[in-house]
Amino acid sequence: MKTMKYILASALCMLVSTACSGTKKSEVNVNEPESEVSQAEAVKTSGKALVVFFSHAGDNYAVGNIKVGNTKIVADYISEITGADQFEIKTSKYDGMAYKPLCDLAKEEQQKGELPEYEGSVDVSAYDTIFIGGPVWWGTYPQVMFTFFKKYDLNGKTLIPFTTHEGSGLGQCANDVKETYPNANVTGEFSIYGHEVREGKDRVEKWLKKLGFAK
Length: 215
Prior knowledge:
Radius of gyration: 17 Å
Shape: globular
Number of strands: 8
């Protein structure tokens, strides 16, 4: 019995502590293998849609130094396919950082509950449906996204989380959105490996079709 409890605890620890933007596939036990799309039914509403996202360019796990972040590529697919507007959460705090120091900083921010500042603002009242995207850093969205969550009340809207990752799937991202906005309809979650996004438009379109946002 003690052995079984130890195995279960170890597996849970691996899921929650997935480092920064991901770990090797063989090291991770996720609750949705490949985690491409949830089993939610179509959720499209008649109102306007918005894609809110944070994406990190520069040094990334598995893809090296990139000019366009993995999550931005997915956000651009969503806007192209659905016509949704975009608001990118931008901060210069992580510019030029190598992967390992960035992971260390992200962990420190999470442990301290820091809320980094970001640029710009958006009128969320104009939108019924909001896609919420980002990489998975230490099991959930980067802390700068929680700065956005603290500023904007998205209760009453349909919220669709999506992530890019290298083994952690959705992590705790969808659960954190649900906890932050208990009166929102959080559904239709989607995740995709960061190293696959550049060839992954068809998978994004398949997901959006299932949700009723693409023909």
